[in-house]
Amino acid sequence: MPRLRKRSILLAGHATSMALEPEFWAVLEEMAQDQAVSLAGLIARLDETRGERPLASACRVAALGFARR
User: Fold this and answer.
1) What is the spatial distance between Cα 1 and Cα 11, in angstroms, rounded to a whole number?
2) Alpha helical stretches, state H, the chain
3) pLDDT tens-digit profile of 5-59?
4) pTM beyond 0.70
5) What is the pLDDT at residue 45?
């Protein structure tokens, strides 16, 4: 089982942390680079549009969608 990697993130002025598998972090970093934003900026965008879905789940779904294109 892959180990989760935890990162601290500042969202809407509040510090939080999120744990994802390293593979998802790698895709999110690639997404951020593709969109010319920081990783924190990308996660903030995902946070704003995630609705009721947990942030980690929203990030995984976004990473999967990006990897499939």
Assistant:
1) 29
2) 22-34, 39-49, 55-68
3) 999 998 888 899 999 999 999 999 999 999 999 999 999 999 999 999 999 999 9
4) yes
5) 95
Query: Is 48 within 8 Å of 64 (Cβ atoms)?
Result: no
Instruction: Give exposure, 28-49, as e/b (b: 16+ Cβ within 10 Å).
Output: beebbeeeeeeeeebbeebbee
Q: How far is CA 30 from the centre of its chain?
A: 11
What does the CA dihedral 13, 14, 19, 20 come to, rounded to 10 degrees?
-20
Neighbours of 16 (CB within 10 A): 13
Q: How far is CA 49 from CA 3, 41, 55, in A?
A: 27, 13, 10
